[in-house]
Structures are given as C-alpha cells and as structure tokens.
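so i finally got all the pieces together for this one. its three components total, 1044 residues if u count the protein bits. some of the lines might not be protein, just check the labels. i wanna see the whole assembly predicted at once instead of chain by chain like last time, that was a mess tbh
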Amino acid sequence: MAADQLSPVVIQVLQDLTILFFAPLISGIVARIEARFQGRRGPRILQPYYDIAKLFRKETLVPEDSSWVYLAAPVVAFTCYLIVPLLIPVLTSYPLPLGYMGDILGGAFVLSLAGFSVSVAAAETDGPYAQLGSSRAMTFGALIEPALLFVTFTVALITTTDLPYFEAAAARASLSQVVRPAHLLAVVAFFLVVLSDTGRIPVETHSSTLELGMIDEARTLEYSGPPLALLKWGAAMKQLILYVILINVFTAPWGLAGSRSTGSVILAIPIFLAKAVGVGTLFAIIDNSFSKLRLFKLTEFMAAAFLVAGLAVLALYLGGG
Amino acid sequence: MMPALLAPPSTFTGTAEAITLLVLLSEFAMLRAPLSRSQIRLYAFQSLVVSGLAFYVAADRHIGDLYAVGTFSFLLKVIVVPAVILRLLKDAPEDLAGSHRLGVASMVLIAIAISVFGLFVVASLPIASILLPKAELGLATAAILVSFLLVIMRSDVVSQAVGFFSLENGVSVASLAIASGLSLVAEVAFFFDLLVAVVVLGVLMRLHHGRARTLSTNEMDRLRG
Amino acid sequence: MEWILTAILVVPFAVSVLSWWVPRRVAEALTLGSGVATFVLAWTLVGSTKPVNALGGWLRTDALSTVFLVAVAFLYALTAIFAIGYLRRSGDPSEDRRYSRRYYAGLNLFCWAMAVAPLVDNLALLWVAIEITTVVSALLVAIDDTEGATEAAWKYVIIASLGLGIALFATIIMYSAGTAALGNGYNFTYPVLLSAAAHLPSSVVRLADLLAVLGFGTKMGLFPVHTWLPDAHSEAPTPVSALLSGALLAVSFYAILRFFQITERALGPAFPRNVLLAFGLASLALAALYVIIQRDLKRLLAYSSVEHMGILAIGMSFSAVLAVVGVLLHVLAHAAAKGTAFFGAGSVLRKLRTKDMARIRGVIDVLPWTGPMLVLAVLALSAMPPFGIFRSEFLIVAGGLSSGSDWEAAILVGLVTLAFLGLSWYATRSMMTPVLDPSSLQGSAATRPAPPTRGETSWWMVSSMVLGLIALAILGIHPPEDLAHLLYRAALELGARR
C-alpha cells in the first residue's frame, strides 16, 4: 500500500466525522443565507456551535413521571445519525467496507428509528405541545413514507439493487440516466420527502416559535441541557444526511473521491460542503417563496409526493422511461 | 461488482415521455386547483405542452402535418379558448373554494388508482405506436380518466368545462401516439368542433351564472327521476 | 345522383345562415322548404341500389346510411311544419324576433348536422358531425332560458361531450387498428376499413367497439349513460324534443352501427352482438320501470325513447336478417311515432300549460284533433297494430326466435309489455278523463284556473301530426316496395344472415 493511501476504515471514520462536525456549520450557513433573503443580517455562521456548546454546560432537567426513555432517546437518535453516514456516499464514489450493511431502505429505517425514539420520549413527558408534536410527527412521517418507498422502487428498477452507491454510479455513468423521466420524477419526489423530513415550508416553519404550527420542533420543547444539545446537533446532522442523499445519490454525484489517496479524499470534503451549501440555498429560497400549508392541507403535499414517486415507478415499469 | 443498469431511453423517447408526464401532472393539478382562473391557466399550460409535443414529434420525425396540428392547437387551445372562457367569467366571483366533493388527498389517491388502471389496461393491448414510445398511449389514457374524475368530483361549472377541454387534450396526445396519420382535415375539424363546444359551454356557464348567481352546480338539482 | 348528396350538404346549412337575417315569416317558409326538399332528396336515394359517392369520396351513401338519412329528413320536414304553429303562439312579440331568429338558425343547423352524419364517409368526420349536433342541440335545449332548461342543457352538454370524448377515443383506436393492416395515413373510410377488416388486430378492434358503444351510447341514451336524456327531452322546446328523440338518438345509433359493421367483419358476430345485447337489455329494463312511475308527460316520452333504443340494441344482437330489417324499420317508425307523440305533447303543453299528467285532463274534449291523435301516437309507440312499430317489433321478435335467441326475445316481449302498460295507462287516462273529474277538484273554485276553451291551437301543429300518423300507418300496413328493398340491403350490409 502506497504511503498516501488511506485505509478504508479511516475513510469511513472520516465520512462520519465530516457529517458530525460540519452539520452545525451547514445549518449556520443556511440560516445566514435565509436571513439575507429576508433582509436581515442574521446570526453568525458559527452560532449553532455556540448554541450546542452552551447547552452542554447547562444542567439537565427531567420531567416528573418520565422514565429512562426520556434520557436515552437523544442518545439513541444521535447514534442513529452517526450510523447512517456509514451507508451512503459522503466522500467516496466507491463503497466502503460497511457500505453494504444497509440499503436505502435500511438507512431510512435507521433514520426513522431516530425519529421514533424522540417521539416516544416526547410522548412520555407531560407537555401537551410535545405530545402534540409527537403524534403529528408520527402521522405525517407515516404519510410521507409511501413516497420514499416508491423512490426506492425506482432506484431498484433502474439499478436492480437498492444500494445508494449503485444509484450514484448509475447517475454518473451517463447524463441520460439523470434526465430520464423516471429519474427526474424520483428526484422531485425525494426532494419533497426531504422538505417534509427537514421540517421546511410548506410543511413546517422551522424557525417559528408558534407551538400550534409545530411538528418536529415541538417534540423537543421539554428538553434542556446536554440532551437538548444532542437533539439539536442530531437535527443538524439529519438535515445534512438528507442533503447528502439528495446530492451524492440522486442529483450530482460528481466530485467524490474516486481513489483512496489522501489528497482526493481530503479534497472531496470542501467540494461536498460546497454542494451542501448550494442545496441549502435552494431550500432557503423555497422557504422564502412559499407559505406554510395549513396542517389539514398537509395531506395534499404528501399525496403530491406520492403521485410523483408513483409515476416514476409506472414510467419505468410500463414504458422503460 | 456494478450491476446491470436499465438502459436509459433514447433522447426522443425520454423527452416525449417527460412532456406527456407533464400533461398528466397538469391534469392532477387541475384536480386540486381551488380557483377557476388558475384552472383555466393550468388548462392553457397543458395545451401548450400538448402543442409542444406535436411540434417536437413533427421536428424529430419530419411530419409536416403535425406542424399544422401543433399550430392549430396552440392558437385555439392556448390562446383563444382560455381567453374566451376568462372573458366570459369576467364578472364571476373569484372564490370557488369548496367545490371539491372529497378531500384533495383522497381525490388524488383515487386519481392515481384509476391512472394505474388505465396504464395497465393499455399496456396489455397490442397497440403499436408508430411515432411515440409505448408509454405515451397509457399516459394519455390516464389523463383522460383523470379528466373524467375532474368532471365528476368538482361541483362547479368551470371545473366541469375544463375537465371536458382537458379530456380533449388527452385524446389529442393519444391521437399523436397512435393515429398521427389521421388526415389533417379530420384533425382540423376536431379543433373547430372544440371551439364551438367552448363557445357553447361558455354561453351555458354565463346563463347559469346569470340565473343562479353562482358557478356551483349544487344548485342544479331540480330535475330528477 | 351525386348532386343530391351535395344538395343535402348545402341546403339546410344555407337556410340556417339565412334564417339569422331574414324576417320570421321568410325563415318559416325557408325552413319548411328546406325540410321538405331534404326529405324528397333523401327519398330519391331510396331506390338507388348502388352506393352513391360525391365530393371526391368525402360523401357516400349506402343502404344503411340512406335509412338514417330518410329518418332524419322526414322528421326535419315534420318539425318544420310543427314549428310554425308552435312558435306563432309563444306570446310576447318583442322577444319573439330574437327568439325565433335563434330558434330557426339553430333548428336548421341541428338538422343539417344530423343529415350530414350519415352522409360522410369517414369515421372521424362522423364523430365531428355528431359533436356538432351536441353543441347545437344543447343551445336549443337552453333556448327557453328557464332554470330547468339551463340545468338540462348543462347536464346534456357535459355528459354527452364526455361520452363523445370516449367515442373520439374509440375512433382513434379504430384508426390505429387500421394502421396495423393498411399502414399510416390511409383513407379512414368505411369501404377501406371493411375491406381490410379481416386483418385488423382483434383486441384493439374489440376495445374500439366497446368504447364506441359506451361513447355514442351516451348520445343514444343507453343505460347507464342515459341520465341526461329525460332532462333534456322534457325541458327543450317541443320541436327540439321531437328531433332529439326521433332523429338524434337514431343518428348516434347509426354511429354505433358503423363500428358494429367493422367489428362484425373483424371479429365475427358474437362480440359486438353481446355488447349491444347487454346495453340493450339494461336500457329496456330501466326504461320499462321508469315509464311506470312517470308523472311528467314529456319525461314519459323520453323514457319511452330509452326503451326503444334498448329495443334497437337488442334487435341488433339477433343474427337473423329479419331482426335487422326490423331494427332498421324500427328506426324509421320510431322517428315518426315519437315525433308525432312529442308534437301532441307540445300542443297539450301549449293549451293546458302543464306537463304534469295528474293535471292534464280531458284533452280529447279540449283538443278535438290533437287529443285522439296523441292517443293514437302513444298507442303506436307501445306497438299497437296497425302502426309501423308493431310491424318492426314483430319482425325483431320473430327474427330473434328464428335465430335461436329465445330467451332474449322472451325478455324483450315481457319488458315491452310492461312499458306498454305504463305508457298507455297514464297517457290514455290523462287524455280520456273528463275535465271535471272529481279527483282533479282539489283547490277551491277561485284558485283553480278557468277550464281551457275547446279548439285547436294551430292547424300547422295538427297537420304535422296527421302526416306523422299517415307515415306510421303506411310503415305498418304496407311499406313501399323500394323502402323494403332498401332495408333488406342495409341489413345485409350489417352482416345479417340470409
């Protein structure tokens, strides 16, 4: 092995660390861009780091009557967010040793386990808003699930596997794979799924402090101290993970390290961050261009996502599109 | 290591399919659109896509007739028909929320189900499209079925009329797919027919609105049995 | 002979345009002239044993299309006569001018489209002609501008247009079936399709036929897509109701027969016949039941139309040539009988100002000519000898029995008898019961309108009914030799067994 070749294990750890350490940064940059769109100066880019650091220094308050689940949930969620980057192409275009551990559905399950544990913990507390958020999160999570499944089916029909690495490789193989109708529809559907899962407009106003409109955010209202820090950090990681899948699996799997050489792997990090900021900007634009749907109208959004994903599968299955 | 990929469609197939998918998606959007004016705009968009498809096929396959078809459909369906309807609706109220007989999400799910039905029925037929990819006819059929749903599930006169017009759009795509050789005379006759139908529907809409002061068809319940 | 087809294509259309500009008296005369001329021209085609082509093959009549052309033209002429009397009594002279202008322009255009439909030699143009009939007749249904008329017209135009959307789809599918045998861009005419029928892909033709029966069946009034029919027939002005029922439904049936003809050649007779049998039985059963519970005179006649369309469809499902001849004769007889019945209903409506059969009393006393003739027309509709419908239904049933469809024929007879009971019971009761029937004396004497005076409203209206009944009697007692041959040739064109 040449001197400048990194061992796959190191690269895999590096992928995890990239997500772990840069997630708050991306959140900060996106928040800043969003503020600019709204004509504000906005917070410092590093503000999320300060928030997390501050929360780690605070004491932890636990509601009466809540069990060990309440404290375990943030840890479980955080661990889940550390597992998913092992499965997806963050920095490299070739699969790493643990890359075969789970497919797209596996990754989705791990992500929903995180969401589930937070929801269970929220349901444990006495806070009515937390419980409301918990039930809403489970409801809408279940409603958006079919769309995600059909996106997976699309990938499976195109690549005959459902491993994210192969979908990325298919997109890299030729441009005509990217612009084929089924792929475009799948991308749109997945985009809608990401909008919903990251709690963005038109599903949720992520920066709002109005509890009645909250879905995901409401679940963490009862938390304080280090567990809240973990949850906030986890939320930033989840957002970045979804960006990674959107970029490196579906839309633009270019700029990834093709070999194990230190240089190319290190170079892949800033390229990836730049792409993530690009996607974040797109989300910020959408955030500023649309208004939030009424809660009872959210099913329309989910139905639209399902429609697009379903058409992707049909186009493939019936027309080879 | 790398599994075999499903070969991507040719540029022509992919583009034609993507255009037809837009026709179907705009049909779904009409199903949802709450305001009559946005529905008419969606219809204009859908017609634009259909005439675009005609031009694309004409240019790619060098069929002169289809240029004429595309031009006619552009002039009539993108410009004249929406203008006529919007003009007739000038003094009608904008707000039509609540003309859905079912929730939007349920309607979309039903529409998906019947689209799938249409797609599979057509896929099982041995109809060979001469010009367009195989999925075209199925997508056109799906659009036709969804336009039926639009007429059935929306209880206002504009939706029902737009449902009929967009039904014609679906049939246009179907005719591009499997009957492009249909003589130009017949095609042009279709268009003029449509124009007449638009005027008639418009006149009736006005009559209804002038009489009932509403565009809702819920008032139309006198005749039974 | 070619000039006849061209003349039929030109004359009613020209009259329609002229009617918009000229005074009412002139429009009446023009319409009458055009109606009679169209009928005479159509009748001259009856004797020609060979198909007639015109305008470079765009127009063509064979025996089948001549039958329908004659039915349309006959009703056109009758309606032109009736309309003169009907319109002169409509009151309010200031509105009269605008109303009659629209009315005559629309009426002529409507008849023109219905006459052109059997003339064109192209499935696509056939569809176009039928779609024109829809839009024109929808305006005619709405012409009275009442709440009911607008509602009926809206339902009619939406349901019929959707049906025709399906029919257009069927047409396109049939075209694509043809491309499999004839290549792209062939001539979409009946002879071309029929000659290539054996090579058409069967499942595609099957779909096209099914969709065509469903689509054109909407206009023809087959169950379950008949729902617009009673509304439109009852709310339209009476002459329009007569045309809708007697001619328009027949023209839609003609379109179905064209698909039937091709499908029968391509797939053999079983499939298209079974499709028609299913729709026909359902329509007949529904109509027979609805006829029994009707209270509105014009709706009663409308459901009777559904019933007769059901009979036509069932008749086509019998293979014997006798049955098919009966079906075609039924088209003609139904046009005459239903026209006459609607004319009578219109006269009653004008005189008594109600369509409610519970309030229609003693018509025979009030209208000494119309009353008996309306009773006769209704009896003719319920297949009473010696009128044409008796003969045609007899032929259909006899044909059904001779081709081994015993059960179907038995059901047909049973349902027709049921409808007969309903139709004749209600109609004759309201005709014959004296005006001062105790059961009609519900309100106090002050609120009750004065009993209408005795006397006919208009002799134009009476004479149209006389002509209709004469035609019915001729069809029933002894159809002209030429016509009988024509029906026989048309039946053979439809693939009936000798």
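Residues 274-498 of chain C form one domain.
The mean pLDDT of chain C is 88.
anyway lmk what u think
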